[in-house]
Predict the 3D structure of the following.
Amino acid sequence: MRRREFLTVFGFLMTTMLATTMLASPSVAQSPVPAPPDDPRPRRRERDPDAPPRRRRRERSEHDPDRPRRPPTPRQLAARERFRQCGAEWRALRDSGRTEGRRWRDFRRDCLRRLRNTRAT
């Protein structure tokens, strides 16, 4: 038997067996369609009172003002200083009305980049 004939016969037999099985079993052929629920929202399961407790959330600790803080790093201090300088430049430009339609965000980005590059060279 050639391959093509074999596949045709095999496919026919499988289709026949599947159809026979579906018609013979009442659970598949005659299963009733479930009615839609009245409330479309999913319902929560009731918690079993005897069940072990769920994982507890960690309690948030209050900020301890007496805790010693680490001093800022030299890079952090330099970044703060650059930010202060850009803020001072922006306030001077804004007060004189020479912002040229720019916003603080755009000015800050360019100013910080300029100051960082001048310090590095």
About this structure: The CA atoms of residues 92 and 98 lie 9 Å apart.
